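Please, structure for the following, as tokens.
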Amino acid sequence: MTGLSDADALDDPVGQSLRGHHAHLARRLGAAATYEPGVATFSAVPAEPDAQAWADLAKLLGPGEFADMFSCPAVPPPDWEPVFVLEGRQMIWAGHACSEPSGVETDSGIVELGVESVPEMLDLIERTRPGPFWPRTHELGTYLGIREGGKLVAMVGERLKPPGWTEISAVCTAPEARGRGYAVRLLRAHIARVVARGDRPFLHVAEENSGALALYERLGFETRKHVTFRGFRTP
């Protein structure tokens, strides 16, 4: 498993992913990069972008398009329209509390979700709204789910993948299935998978989501840093 000495990659998780593990899903122009349409709206520029980098990203996206700058601290030119600002945290798994999650890999109630599951994944996302999820988001990594009576009621997946790390995301449970421990089961299973392949789990959470914060801390995640998520519309 990667060590904390490698955590610098988490300072630019979108850029690191687009240049590395997700390069096959990237669109690039100059120093700017973003995901292919339908995969994600996350975009990246250098840590200290110049005017050309912003111009490249605007050209890459097109006029009036949405640029989710995620946790990038750089602010675009004033003719970019602000869309949202959200305070949050970046958390990393500290390797305790569930470092040996007993039996999660053989949990018969957990299924892997593929392209055939996209319609029901999108339906669950629409009903629970854990964060951005598009028709091709599942291409970012593995997604696990739990069904009741054949209906998908809980899901956990993975998103950004800077070197040595895997971001756990899309943690959601349908309202009618909450309180049954599904999120914990899925999170433990996903942590086990990530660790087994030599990566370390991390995630992002909105500061206002106190319930999720408490759950992640109980499962062994610790706050690495506070971040501000920002989105803009290109001129």
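The CA atoms of residues 88 and 227 lie 5 Å apart. The two ends are 43 Å apart (CA to CA).
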